[in-house]
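hey so i finally got around to running both of the ones u sent me last week. sorry it took forever, my laptop kept dying halfway thru and i had to restart like 3 times lol. anyway pasting them below in the order u listed, first the sequence line then the structure token line for each. didnt double check formatting much so if smth looks off just lmk and ill redo it

first one:
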Amino acid sequence: MDTILRNTKASSRQLYLDPRTKILLCITVSTVMLAMDNTGIFVYIIPVMTIVPLIFLAIIKSPMMAVYYGILYLVAFFVPKMIVAYLPQAVNLLFTGVLATMTRLIPGMSMFYFLIATTSVSEFIAAMERMHIPKVMTVPVSVMFRFFPTIVEEYHGITDAMRLRNVGSFRNPMDMLEYRLVPLMISLTAIGNDLSISALTRGLDAPNKRSNMCAIGFNVQDYIAIAVSVVILILAALSMAFGI
């Protein structure tokens, strides 16, 4: 069994991507969406970057997240253009500014969700060790990988409990804040402490080199994604430096 596990290589099924490739994709999408303007060649690149998260969400068979992403982005993109002429100037600057910022943030956030949803803690730590990232950075981020999914599970549990008691519905927003968000906020501290203790118990901060049985590695799709990402980042750097 030990020999089989050690000789297992990363497969390319379901568009397997190495964690390092996913991190580079997150950086690329976030950099383009946040730092670049709709000028020059980025008139074409920025729309492509908005579609990339939708493609990956569809690949991992997460239709609800793909629908949420599409609806949020379309609302943030089209609503300001539809109502900008009917709003007072002060409200217009605040409201449309927030929605315009959302169009820049949503693709990067969706790629981060893709990274967390498709990468286990062991795979992430193995990838960080391959890149010689110090444990001062690796351990907190590995804890964060379990922090967000645990928050979602906790919120679903609180929602089910409140639904059984028929309290905290959208008809009573103040009750919803009291009976759902307040318990969730209180649970966040306990969740963070529990996950930190779990990480320390598993020896993630041990000075010795950690052994990993998970198989990671680059495939053809990784090289393609890395090449495209590097080209886009180089174009972004040239655009910021020379305005091409």
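and the second one:
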Amino acid sequence: MPEPVKLLNAEQVAAFDVEYIDDSLFQHFNKAVNEFIKSPENLHLLDVGGGNGSYADRFLEHYAGSQVTIVEPDEAMLGKNNVHPNKHLRHGIFQKFNNSETFDLIQFNWVLHHFVTSGYSSTHQLQRQGLLDAYDMLAPGGLIIIFENFYEGKNDSNTPGKHIFHLTASKWLKKLTRRLGANTAGVGVCFNSAYHWQQQLQDVGFEVVHTSHCYNFGNLSLWKKCLLGIKRQRVGLLVGQKQIS
């Protein structure tokens, strides 16, 4: 039996009541959609962890006639959504999302690193299963679109993400890691390198994997970077396409 998903509490979730996709990042998204889908009209998007729905509103404004289904575990966040006839709200976690329809697009906006369990290995299994489930829910030729923070060590290793996971997942270190700025303290967060995500997407069957660099980020001191093994921190866009036939 798979380990249960660890969820953030209401206070932790409230800190993410922010829309991170600005005009520049939406252009990255729009370019990818236009590149892989010949007629991007009347699309059905599954927005995983879509929160307050502001991203869904932007999508519906740009792709008129399309549909968005939001699956979100926090009921308070769902309650902040604007009503739209083409927006469908589902309360629950992605791992228990049952839907008879297929989707043209499935999007994870800084969500996959919150797919965590009690162990590092089982967390990676949970993340991989999430990608596999998305593959199964997509129509032929459909896209998985992922905005993520990439924490990369020497030779694109996952060393920084592993250290961060163990520090943030520890209940013993919860007070310390929270003081150091980790909002996910006591629950955990699992970042990965771009290379890791690319390999996982290919392993579960995605035919095309496209990576786009968005911007570098990070204000950690040099000693913290050395301690965590961080060589580079950046935001990127990953796109995988399901086989058309």
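quick thing i noticed on the 2nd:
Residues 213 and 236 are 5 Å apart (CA to CA).
anyway thats it, ttyl
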